[in-house]
Amino acid sequence: MKTIKELNEKKVPIIRIDNSLEKYKKMPIFQDKVDKANEMLRTVGLPKLATNK
Amino acid sequence: MKLPRYELLAEKSLMVYEFVSEGTKGQIPKLIKFSETALKDFYNLAFGDKNLITGDIDDNVVSNNGDSEQVLATVVAAVYAFTDKQKHVWVYATGSSKARTRLYRMGITKYIDEIKKDFLIFGQREGEWEKFKKEVDYTAFVVRRK
User: Fold this and answer.
1) Distance from B26 to chain A by nearest Cα, in Å?
2) Tens-digit pLDDT profile for chain B (146 aa)?
3) In this predicted complex, what is the ipTM?
């Protein structure tokens, strides 16, 4: 059996599912940041993978 | 990144997470959300404090709970969870202020060697993306699993 410390050291964490968080999926929280991200996508776009690798 | 981190709760699509910061000012519930953007497979990462009375989420508040490293390690853990099943997605993040973006940059810099094992990471400067370099003042960051 793994210890809490071992579990905590895994990069991909163990997640407990909480259905009460569902409501935040549709809620426009952090919308200003999403708008800024969309503006960045429009003006800057994505990094160029082929040349930046 | 073997830093202590908080236990994460999430809804089943793993787009919204909650954890509780425990520090000098007590327990502060925090919410992390990966929001869809106008571009498919490109998500905005944001997190903030959850007001227990109003239920509102505030990403401008400065909690000063003395556990910022543990909070950032928990957010990084959420990025691992979110990108684990869909490794092709981009995750974009910027701070709600210059100071906070700088704090994120310092956190990334500290663990950049570890991050680069699993992620491609870019910083945005003067309207361009470049491979993340230490000591450069970026306005935003984007990562994608390798």
Assistant:
1) 22
2) 567 899 999 999 999 999 999 999 999 999 999 999 999 999 999 999 988 777 778 777 777 899 988 998 999 999 999 999 899 999 999 988 888 899 889 989 988 988 999 999 999 999 999 999 998 999 999 999 99
3) 0.88
Q: Taking CA atoms, what residue in B is nearest to A52?
A: B131
Question: Which of B22, B92, B44, B74 lies closest to A29 in space, CA to CA?
Answer: B44
Do residues B100 and B93 touch, judged by C-beta distance below 8 A? no
Q: Give contacts of A48 with chain B, Cβ < 8 Å.
A: 129
What's the gap in Å between the CA of B35 and the closest CA on chain A?
Answer: 7
Any CB–CB contact under 8 A between A46 and chain B? Answer: yes
Read off the pTM: 0.89
The CA-based angle B100-B102-B29, given to 5 degrees, is 30
